[in-house]
Write a structure and sequence with these properties.
about 150 residues; signal; 6 strands; about 35% helix; Excinuclease ATPase subunit
């Protein structure tokens, strides 16, 4: 084997080790409204279930079913960070929706991002972490029944 080809193999190996040991983990603060208004979200989220973020005012709570935490990841390969984050946000909301249905409630209130167990409460943004191959969203909130208004 020629010395040049051997050197190229060593350099490529070093590059591979370098890039895998420093995997990308980009934090994004993205619009809740944009995520809720994607065509997939509009088609798959139940309009009878309310998702209330942060300290947004809501109706009277008539029943409480406890906290819910969802930790979702998705394949981010060949997607923009925003596309991957909106997809995984939908997955997290669908998980909360399933919990509401199981309990017989109609809402999740006080929803906040909870990535790495760090609460981030907002009425307008959620936290998503995106890398070269995965994106993740962690949400936490309280499953309840709200009085009809």
């Amino acid at each position: 084997m020629s010395r040049g080809i051997m050197l190229m193999g060593v350099l490529l190996g070093a590059l591979l080790v370098s890039t895998t040991s420093h995997a990308r983990d980009t934090t994004h603060m993205l619009s809740i409204e944009d995520a809720l208004n994607t065509p997939d979200a509009r088609a798959r989220l139940d309009s009878n279930i309310q998702f209330i973020f942060g300290d947004t005012p809501h109706g009277e709570i008539t029943a409480e079913y406890g906290p819910a935490v969802t930790n979702k990841k998705t394949n981010a390969f060949n997607k923009s960070d925003v596309e991957a984050c909106e997809w995984v946000m939908l997955s997290a909301l669908l998980s909360l929706q399933d919990r509401v249905r199981e309990e017989g409630g109609n809402a999740v209130v006080n929803i906040e991002s909870f990535y790495d167990r760090r609460p981030m409460s907002s009425t307008s943004e959620y936290e998503c972490h995106a890398g070269a191959i995965m994106a993740g969203v962690v949400l936490r909130g309280d499953v309840v029944t709200l009085a009809d208004e």
